[in-house]
Amino acid sequence: MAETHKPPERFTLRMRRYDPESGEAPYWDEHTIELEPHRSVLEGILQAKAKFDGSIGIRCSCRAAICGSCGVRINGEPGLACHTHLDHARASSKDGVIEVEPMGNMPVIKDMIVDMDAVHWKKVQRVTPWLINEGPQPEREHLVPRESMVDITQTMACIQCGACVSDCLAMEVDPGFIGPAALAKAYRFVGDPRDEEQRERLLDLSEDPQGIYDCTHCFKCVEACPKDVNPMGQIMRLRRIAGADQHINDQNNGHRHEETVVTLIKDYGLLHEAEMIPRSYGGNSWFGKFHPAAGKELLSSLPVAIRGIAKRKMSIKIAIFGHKIPKQDLNAVKRIYEKVESKPERYELNLYVSGVDEDAEQTPVGVGSEEGSAK
Amino acid sequence: MKVAYWPGCVSRGFTPELHGSMAKVAPLLDIELVQLDRASCCGAGVIAEHNQELADTLNARTFALAQQVDGAELMMNICSTCQGAQGECQERLDSSAEYRAQVNSTLADEGLSYEKGLTNKNFLWLLVEEIGLEKLSGMVKRPLTNLKVGPFYGCYIVRPRDRLGIDEEHPRDHYLEQLIETLGGTVIEYAGMRKCCGFPIITMNKEASLKQAGRHLGDAVDADADCLVTPCPLCHLNLDMQQPLAEKVVGRELNMPVLHLPQLVGLALGLEPKELGLSRHVVKPTSVIDWSTSVVGAAA
Amino acid sequence: MPAHDVLIIGAGLAGQRAALAAAKAGASVAILSKVHPVRSHSVAAAGGINAAINVADDWRSHAYDTVKGSDFLGDQDAIEIMCSEAPKEVMHLEHIGVTFHRNDSGELDLRAFGGASMKRTAYVADITGQAILHVLYEQLMKHHEQVERYEEWFVTSLLQDDSGRCCGVVARDVRSGRMETLQAKNVILACGGAGQVYSPTTNALIVTGDGIAQAYRIGAPLMDMEMVQYHPTTLVENGLLITEGARGEGATLLNSEGERFMEKYAPNKMELASRDVVSRAEQTEILEGRGVGANKDGIYLDITKVPRKRTLEALREIVNIGKDFAGVDITREPIMIRPGQHYIMGGVKTDVNGATPIEGLYAAGEVACVSVHGGNRLGANSLLDTLIFGRRAGEHAAARAASMGLPDTSDAQLREDVATIDAIIARPRTGRRVSEIKQELGETMNQYVAVYRDQEGLEQAHEIVKRLQAESKDAYIDDKGAVFNQDVLGAIELGYMLDCAEATVVAAIERKESRGAQFRTDFPERNDAEWLKHIDISLNGDGPQISYSAVTMTQWEPEERKY
Prior knowledge:
The structure holds three protein chains of three kinds. Chain B is an alpha/beta fold. In chain B, 42% of the residues lie in helices and 10% in strands.
């Protein structure tokens, strides 16, 4: 049995306090508690509340990572306090003291309690978060494919804790970005066969400059999420469906950019940076660069290009012609494109649903076997 | 050691100084680079966004080509984005024999086949895990004394932790700090170390993209770094090539040179700045090294 | 003063369902919750919701299973209503978007659950409560113009007018500390049970018996308070729930000798017998020395039997719980569990429309006792209970509101409550801390008022509860502020918990028989002749007064209960 019951140990918690009624700035407050090492940071905080200072403010309820109340930052990383073990938290701390702060990107009300209405819930409401199915209802259930319900269970698993919103890097520079939680919620409807407004939802979220194409693809939300909702992955699925299925050519260059990269790699085998920029603006063809939107962008990028060429960072040849892989290999690549893209339906393996083969090594990528063999 | 070498696209395109410096540094570290000329772009996450199976198949092909390199101990890349994008594909391929068979049936046309369990390591990981910091420190000819270096990792090589094998035994999200110290430099910690350079949205929201780059560069300036070092050429593009534009967006002068990882290592191993391509950067690394005397950290 | 036709306290499944039903009926509705609605404890309900939707099934079979499960203490008219209305309610949930799992034909898939004679539990992986709660909240967001939400408001008193009608509440805006009187023609209590009275418990920290105590304090009778359910599979580590759905998927229970001991106790239904039967079986195995773990106080739940892919699909949450809280991969090894407090069948006495004897006061969900669960609740019947009676209470209250004016209220109670809070804050640090009293209460209840009870133990518990009630009046707190003062709310909740505990203990002493969840080692047999009746508790002066009420029987006569 894997359960190890070590005896209680002392852990020091450094909590970020803020008393709005005092007129004082936020400050750090330390308390040392005693618990078994596998117990949670939340239990530690509750012990501090019970024994030392009942005014410590933190939202909490279920203690089982299902209600989503106790979202905080622990040692600078977002997560649930009830879900983080004391020993792990101490190990990942800078100086052996576990730091607990309120979540980011949201105003602080008191101590570790933030105003989620002002940010998180506002963004959720932005995506029309209810099923739109207005017609006459069947007497029994709508018949839907089994897989579709299993698929959206991943986004249904979101407990609205805010951890992804807390540390979203795109939101940090662009506070109006709709964000990971709301967009994952949007997928819950786009992926639901019973929702009648797939196209409208995608049009809305693609055209909004702070919608699906504002995600900076940094994986912060993927790591923050305690429920494996994979918000960034859901945003990518929204892009996929918007572009490939709904043919939405958004004003944010999102779809054009995607198409451009895909096409350039088909034609060259490698990325052609100089083509990528104008085509993303002007359209995915060699003529894209002559489109007014591309022209405008090229003009503003001219200083960058000139500087680059002057420093011999890139040769003019590379800039204009790009570089290709050998012809035979390029043909092989083209054949792969043709074969995969001609399939009537996209095949998507979702590890959340399928899991890993029984015999698959759980070793992560890049660690490999002891000899580190390429074979 | 012999490695199946995937240099990526950008190192041969807009950041040739990366490719060049890697070629110069490898023999000093006893690394034989067998370049995978036939392989295609990893997709940078964008092909996967478009069609997952397509990205998985293209990368499976690269993996298969790597596995064919006789005597290669592993595959090595020099780009955080390749590491992350390829890693995501590999995770799917390795998870299911059925899926692998499906992908391999597409590769069969070319006579290629991917066998599960490839080891794909970024040059940064190779330095620490295969060569070892102790051995490396013995090779240092020009210690980076007085050089204050800020690490910039690039998102794709630090998140998600599980997939990238980051744990207590392999603190890969701290390797740059360990490396900088081993080479004699001073580590500068700053807020933007593991944040996003903004490259993925450069065409979709240019302002937000460059604001990220500008802010993180600014944080490094405030923390008194002489330069940044990064293992990702895409980050390099947004941080170096776009730095003048980023300055306009955040409204401050930055003057923060950004080094590629092999360049930093090369300097410490005694190579000359010019042969490492340092003159090709948009933001000239004058604070890094005195060109005339080759003294590192020469500028005050 | 804000005023509404229907004011609902508590925004879990029952409360939110009542709000939507009342709004649909055209009433002006407000819903109030001391936490954000999606944090309500309904969110933790895992396994599923029962309904006889299979064409081969019959709601009467479901009703019989429920009657039997209740050990014949359930009111059969209420049970018939619940089971006959279940299929329509489940279809309604599907229509508004609940993401129920499907079979290969695209229809709702049904899994096995405890005490059920056929598979009739619809589910969403093992997050059914969460899925339904979030979908209901989506509907509240959609209908935000018809339902006003008071999120993070805490009720301190129920209001009554001169003739004793309930006419609103006094509540505190937790964020600012401001107290207000909220008027209403009807108040529906939907605040949940009282699990925090016990330690450990599967229940969240917010489940402190608020509604039960508040109703009790204004003279509403409580019913069946001795009936407290111990769930068979709670984590030894920390008391967290491992859903019955695991056993529904085929998981088995093993003792230290590796035997599937349920064979001895319930040879027919085995692990899927009713919860009280399984809990007692486990407790007996433990008491007789066949427990597992370092302290030999656990039982193995073996989920490795379930195919891995199915576990990942349908039991995802317990994979997470096993990994995060017990360091166990449940697909590869068994997990240690034991019986733990989980649910209270008893509560505020209501009729089949959720109406209490106090005019204008309704109750629905775990806070109420209709009774559909009698002496023991079947798994997946609670989600059903909350929705059916939440809806009925909402409709009934809306109809009542349509034909009446707004009762008069004054600010007297508001002033009193403000003074009470100020007094708590000002208490000197001479007594005990609130958390200490709460801890002692929880341990006491878990020791004497648990799976096996006897006269001596119950009387001991009663003494302790009375002492703790006295001590609670001097319990001091630290937080003197107004903004988000969780400390002072904790002191008020302690009072609610002690009232609930007292009612439970008094009722348990009174019932001199074993039935359903109440097992008295001194009265081990069920005694229909003398005890086939409900025990009601009302506040009389300072203390609880006992009376009885009859069990309504329609179709089924009590019989021997074997699984």
